[in-house]
Specification:
The protein has 21 helices and 12 strands. By secondary structure, it is α/β, with parallel strands linked by helices. It has 3 domains: about 300 residues, ABC transporter type 1, transmembrane domain (ABC transporter transmembrane region fold, Up-down Bundle), CATH 1.20.1560.10; about 150 residues, 3-Layer(aba) Sandwich (Rossmann fold); about 70 residues, Rossmann fold, CATH 3.40.50. The strands form 3 sheets. A 6-stranded mixed β-sheet has the order 6-9-10-3-11-12, sandwiched between helices. The protein is elongated and about 120 Å long.
Length: about 625
């Protein structure tokens, strides 16, 4: 597979990225301070424990004066309880902090994803974007819960232990520190290999997500063409690579931690060997020796912890680089003067662009629209230099019904995408009642339209919820009236819970015709000024097509209508028909006028209505 951005690792520490990450911590600085205080207090209690052991041995046990042992034991118990409380406060505070930061970050990422233009989704697989919102945000959560604050505790603990060791006995301190070259060697080996292993794991996680998303979405095609075996083989390959990458990571951890323990045991052996001799020689107390062994064991724990946190830091840097790369992706289809794709949805968080108010710019208020559309010398290319539309011009008067026909790739659906500003024109302009679409707020522009697609998209929820799509101002009565008007009410009432019937993902439990009728009810409930249809009567039986055509008449009444058609019978009674061919507007007129021209439209008509013509002569479902 070709490399992609999931293989980005970047630096182990990037100050620019870290400053931006710390920005998400600022709203919760009080919680961070509480966690920091708990860490400091917990380190203090842990450092006090070996000192109390030394005191009990040297001042009481070694001298035979056991009267103070009970007091020391109580103090020791107090440090254990204090360390427990500090650890509890630290853990709960940091976990809650991480969850809040994850919430903020995911919200910001999803908000930005909603504002990105459709061209971005043409370039980026959905599986990869899912990895951004899930796994990458999880990696940053680990940084906040186990890294950026708690690493301070490791550093403080390490510095405190070094200071106490030197103050107790500099000779034993040197013995403890003499194994540091081994520690550094093992740690460097671990970091280098785990870094590469982590890169592999992240890469295969993203590829696994992308593969699953693609194949589960296209399961009907997989089963129809009997590709289950090949799909399973490919999944096993990707899944196996992911497993192997994790196993390699486990190997490095399995070597590192026992190696640290072994080096720690070697240090303890040196302390016992030399310290025992010094105790016998009378130059060292046995309490100091015992305390030293306890401190030595504690000395290696923060070192191994910081090595682990290095990997968390590495993971967070890689994930933040990818996330901020996504967040910094410019929104090419924006509201005028705001820099936002959908006004009012942005959240002021670290790294965001300024809000419209902070710029001192107010989006223009849309006037009452009549619905006159002018396409003025419009050209458009998905790929620079390869025009899909070429100098197209036409006018749609208010209340006029326009049909658009043409072969696959002629630019029909592209024209609709430009009209709704899913993309912006490469050259020329499109106006709505004299105002360039690029000068209208997106929400206001799209509120004038209802789009009924050939492939109806339904969301999980209920039937009524899919008609109103979250609009609180659309009442239940209005939902029912819209459904009755387009003949959807009859099948809805036959469902187990009528309008409250749950809808499966993408409406899997409904027929194509039922979903089409629901999309008409949705459009009518929103009461659009301009209706856009993309082959709305395709792939249904004759009886349902009659219902749909009747529903279309209800929908089109009093509305400007633009209809893409592959079946010419659906647009014969339109006021005007536009014929696109290879991105150019080649013919325009009524059905009879176009037949009289005996041009492209006439050929399309003959292909569809000649009894021996192949049924697939005119292709459907084009991107153009």
């Amino acid at each position: 597979m070709a490399p992609h951005d999931d293989e980005i690792l970047g630096k182990a520490y990037d100050s620019r990225l870290m400053r931006r990450l710390i920005g998400y911590l600022r709203p919760y600085w009080a919680r961070a301070l509480v966690a920091l205080a708990a860490i400091v207090i917990g380190v203090g209690f842990q450092l006090a424990q070996p000192v109390l052991v030394k005191r009990a041995i040297d001042q009481h046990i070694a001298t035979g004066d056991l009267r103070g042992v009970g007091v020391v034991a109580l103090l020791y118990l107090g440090t254990l309880l204090g360390a427990f409380v500090a650890e509890f406060v630290q853990t709960t505070t940091l976990q809650m902090l991480g969850q809040r930061i994850m919430y903020d970050l995911r919200r910001q990422v999803f908000d930005h994803l909603q504002r990105l233009d459709l061209a971005y989704y043409d370039r980026n697989p959905v599986g990869r974007l899912m990895t951004r919102v899930t796994s990458d945000v999880d990696a940053i959560n680990d940084l906040f819960t186990s890294g950026v604050v708690s690493v301070f505790g490791d550093v403080l603990s390490l510095c405190g232990i070094i200071a106490v060791l030197v103050s107790l006995d500099w000779r034993l301190a040197l013995l403890t520190f003499c194994v540091m070259p081994l520690i550094l060697f093992v740690t460097q080996w671990f970091r280098r290999n785990v870094r590469e292993s982590y890169r592999e794991v992240r890469t295969w996680v993203s590829r696994l997500n992308a593969f699953l998303q693609e194949n589960l979405t296209g399961m009907s095609t997989v089963q129809l063409f009997r590709r289950e075996g090949r799909a399973l083989d490919e999944f096993q390959r990707v899944n196996g690579e992911h497993r192997d990458a994790n196993l390699r990571s486990i190997y490095y951890y399995a070597v590192f931690y026992p190696a640290i323990e072994l080096i720690g045991a070697l240090s303890t052996a040196l302390i016992l060997w030399f310290g025992g001799g010094w105790v016998l020689a009378g130059t060292l107390t046995i309490g100091t020796l015992v305390a030293f062994i306890q401190y030595a064991q504690r000395f290696f724990r923060p070192i191994s912890d910081m090595s682990e946190k290095f990997n968390l830091l590495q993971a967070a840097m890689a994930s933040s680089e990818r996330l901020f790369g996504l967040l910094d992706t410019p929104v090419s289809v924006m509201d005028p003067g705001t820099g936002y794709g959908v006004p009012g949805t942005a959240t002021a968080t670290a790294g965001d662009s300024p809000t419209p108010h902070s710029l001192g710019v107010s989006p223009p208020k849309p006037k009452a629209k009549a619905g006159r559309i002018v396409v003025d010398d419009v050209s458009f290319a998905y790929t620079p230099g390869v025009d899909v539309l070429k100098h197209v011009s036409f006018t749609v008067e208010p209340g006029q019904r326009i049909g658009i026909v043409g072969a696959t790739g002629s630019g029909k659906s592209t024209l609709i995408n430009l009209l709704l500003r899913f993309y912006d024109v490469t050259s020329g302009r499109i106006t709505l009642d004299g105002t360039d679409l690029r000068d209208l707020p997106l929400a206001a522009l799209r509120s004038h339209f209802a789009l009924v697609l050939q492939d109806v998209y339904l969301f999980s929820g209920t039937i009524a919820g899919n008609i109103r799509l979250g609009r609180d101002d659309i009442s239940d009565a209005r939902v029912r009236e819209a459904a009755q008007a387009v003949h959807a009410d009859a099948f809805i009432r036959d469902l187990p819970q009528a309008y409250d019937t749950p809808v499966a993902e993408r409406g899997a439990t409904l027929s194509v015709g039922q979903k089409q009728l629901l999309s008409f009810a949705r459009a009518l409930a929103f009461d659009p000024q301009i209706l856009v249809l993309d082959e709305a009567t395709s792939s249904v039986d004759t009886e349902t097509e009659i219902l749909i055509r009747d529903a279309l008449h209800v929908l089109m009444e009093g509305r400007t209508t633009i209809a893409i058609a592959h079946r010419l019978s659906t647009i014969q009674d339109m006021d005007r028909i536009l014929v696109l061919h290879r991105g150019e507007l080649r013919e325009a007129g009524t059905h009879q006028e176009l037949l009289a021209l005996r041009g492209i439209y006439h050929r399309l008509y003959e292909l569809q209505y000649q009894s021996h013509a192949p049924a697939t002569a005119v292709a459907t479902g084009d991107r153009g």
